[in-house]
Amino acid sequence: MRAYFILFFILMSSCGQKNTSVKMGVTTRAELVAVKGEPLKEDKIPVKDGQVMVYENDEKYQLKGDVVVSSFKAPQGDEQLLIFWKHKFKDCLTISKDLDKIPGSHTPGEIELACPESGISVIYTQGSDLISRVVEYEVR
Predict the structure, then answer these.
(1) Nearest CA to 116 among 98, 95, 133?
(2) What pLDDT score was predicted for residue 18?
(3) Pairing of strands 67-73, 95-98
(4) Helix, strand or coil for residue 118?
(5) CA 64 to CA 48: how far, in whole Å?
(6) Are 113 and 82 in contact (CB under 8 A)?
(7) 79-97: pLDDT as tens digits
(8) CB of 71 within 8 A of CB of 59?
(9) Which residues contact 128 (CB under 8 A, 6 or more apart)?
(10) What does DSSP assign to residue 21?
């Protein structure tokens, strides 16, 4: 009986937790650390006041100054399928563009499918229906 009481208490307390979403262009570095914890590492990038905070599972957040401007993550579950994103973006005017291929590379190029109004784009390999990265960015 005591175990049920403890389980009930844990469930009830977890229901009252605040939403931990990160909003691009709004969330500050301190808020990101409060939500995600300390990053595994931080890298400077060749963008003025730019840095990338790297978390587990290769989840990355790009900051400009003190504000999170984009995130990069590996897709999870159905997010790995291009058809999932085409359905999710069905009411959005999408933009598809070929990404620069590494000169001399024999691997197929990558394609970006973006829904600018949602601030999400996905990257997949040409000739494949599998998503390699999900990118979230500030909607302007």
Answers:
(1) 95
(2) 37
(3) unpaired
(4) coil
(5) 7
(6) yes
(7) 999 999 999 999 999 999 9
(8) yes
(9) 82, 108
(10) -
Q: Where are the beta strands (DSSP E) in 36-109?
A: 41-44, 50-54, 60-64, 67-73, 95-98
Helix (H) or strand (E) holding 12: helix 2-15
Strand partners, 75: none
Cα–Cα dist 130/116, whole Å? 21
Residue with tokens 């996905």: 122
pLDDT over 50 at 17, yes or no: no
- Scanning the structure block, which residue is given the tokens 């599998």? 130
Which of 8-46 are b and which e, b meaning 16 or more Cβ less than 10 Å from the residue's Cβ?
eeeeeeeeeeeeeeeebeebebebbeeeeeebeeeeeee
* Nearest-5° Cα angle at 95, 117 to 107: 130
Contact 41, 56 (CB under 8 A): no
Q: Could you give the CA distance from residue 77 to residue 129 in angstroms, rounded to a whole number?
A: 14
Q: How long a stretch of residues is the chain? A: 140
Structure-token pair, residue 82: 């291009």
- Over residues 105-132, the pLDDT tens digits come to 777 889 999 999 999 999 999 888 899 9
